[in-house]
Design a protein that fits this description.
Largest sheet: none
Shape: globular
Low-confidence stretches: 8-18, 20-25
Oligomer: single chain
Helix content: over 70%
Number of helices: 18
Order of helices and strands: HHHHHHHHHHHHHHHHHH
Structural class: mainly alpha
Number of strands: 0
Radius of gyration: 22 Å
């Protein structure tokens, strides 16, 4: 039975090598894959070097502030990043330049207003609410909320009007290299050790300068054109579309970021630092699926709506087969060398090893489940998908709140891993039942009918 299953896997792998659809997909997505892989590696190194540039306690405060700002930036954009990615290319194809400029400008206004108000709330919390120690890191986190929201929205704008390179390189590559250079100055003794507040302020200023240069690089996003150019608006239509996109994004981002926030509130900064490092390290397991998902999503949408279900199955199987082996290798590396990897962040970070294993197991389930998110979002199943991730993430937050006071960071890690695994399994069952598609690695071992 096992040998027969392996034979089917080998046969399908050979078929992929000679498939025209797969070859075109691979060629078209190479740039995105290279940039995302490089960016993910730099992200890990950036957080590692930030940890080396401050104490464990300060890194815990930094992790709390960064996670809070990340979640609020997603909330404050109200889904307009995904919306502009959907509408701007369509308006361009129709020659509706004023509508294209309008949706881009409107998204900037929403982002500045939403993230700005939330950022001011964080600044006020740091200034007024007692119990946060030195409040300056929260004040800096408020500013970072606005800048990060703008960076995220603008990346979607650039992807919609220019393509992958100008969309991803500024933040994923240039910004992270600048932050790493600043940390390097601290590590060689030319600059004093960072506090959490200083680190947040530094990454905020660096990101602002990067996205300013990015905006100036394209005529559509330069301030003069963006502000004074003739534009048309369909605000009601855009908001109607944005709400569903926004809900899905917020819910998906909630559990891991809220886990860090809850650990910071319920435990101590010394416990928060290693947990934040463990979460960021475990995210490396999603690198291959995330990169492949960017490439395969448009193809899934195109072939599904042509009712070419066999091609969609093939795309899913190709994706999960491509990510399975490297993801398993990273997971095994964490099992045997996780303590040593966490020790690279600094002394005391090895305490996050147990959390790292649990989080990695959840991320492994996510990777081996295949492009579940793309299947749900690209085939018209957005509402069932939102219900699934909403229910599973609410349960995950209940687990986090219940177990963290008892088991510390292990309890928080269990909650995050549970939520990640549960929604993926639910999506697989839904796709099998309603579409006849299994996006998971299990499809490689099934007989063809």
């Amino acid at each position: 039975m096992i040998s027969a299953a392996l034979g089917r896997v080998r046969a399908r792998a050979a078929a992929f090598a000679n498939d025209d659809v797969m070859a075109k997909l691979a060629r078209g997505g190479l740039a995105a894959l290279v940039i995302k892989v490089g960016g993910a590696g730099l992200s890990f190194l950036m957080f590692l070097m930030l940890a080396r540039a401050m104490s464990v306690e300060e890194y815990g405060r930094f992790g709390f502030a960064f996670s809070l700002a990340t979640l609020l930036a997603v909330i404050g954009t109200f889904g307009f990043g995904s919306l502009v990615l959907r509408y701007a290319p369509a308006y361009d194809a129709d020659g509706a330049t004023e509508m294209q400029r309008g949706v881009i400008r409107y998204g900037y206004i929403v982002t500045v207003a939403g993230c700005g108000i939330l950022g001011l709330g964080v600044v006020g919390m740091g200034a007024i609410v007692p119990g946060f120690g030195h409040p300056y890191y929260l004040m800096a986190a408020g500013a970072f909320t606005l800048v990060l929201g703008l960076a995220e929205y603008q990346a979607h704008v650039m992807r919609a009007i220019t393509g992958i390179t100008l969309s991803l390189v500024p933040r994923d590559i240039i910004w992270r290299l600048i932050v790493m250079a600043g940390c390097g100055l601290v590590m060689i003794g030319l600059v004093p050790d960072f506090t959490a507040g200083a680190a947040m302020a530094f990454i905020t200023v660096a990101l602002f300068l990067v996205i300013l240069g990015q905006a100036l690089a394209h005529p559509m996003t330069r301030p003069d054109s963006l502000v004074s150019g003739t534009a048309s608006f369909e605000g009601t239509k855009w908001w109607s579309t944005a709400w569903g996109l926004w809900g899905t994004m917020v819910v998906r981002m909630a559990a891991p970021n809220l886990a860090v926030i809850f650990v910071g509130l319920m435990l101590s900064p010394i416990a928060t630092g290693p947990f934040f490092a463990a979460i960021r390290t475990a995210m490396l397991l999603n690198l291959f699926l995330m990169s492949s998902g960017m490439v395969v999503a448009p193809a899934i949408a195109r072939h599904f709506h042509r009712n070419e279900i066999d091609v969609v199955r093939k795309l899913c199987l190709m994706t999960v087969a491509a990510v399975a082996i490297p993801t398993l290798m990273v997971f095994i590396t964490f099992v045997f060398f996780g303590r040593e990897i966490l020790s690279l962040f600094g002394e005391g970070f090895e305490s996050g090893y147990g959390a790292l294993l649990i989080l990695s197991a959840g991320n492994l389930v996510n990777a081996l489940s295949g492009p579940t998110a793309q299947i749900m979002e690209m085939t018209g199943a957005e509402r069932p998908y939102l219900r699934m991730i909403l229910v599973t993430n609410i349960l995950a937050l209940i687990v986090i709140l219940s177990l963290t006071p008892v088991f510390g960071v292990i309890g928080a890690a269990i909650g995050v891993a549970f939520g990640m695994s549960a929604w993926n399994i639910w999506c697989i069952l839904y796709a099998r039942k309603t579409m006849g598609i299994d996006p998971s690695i299990l499809a490689a071992f099934q007989r063809r009918t």
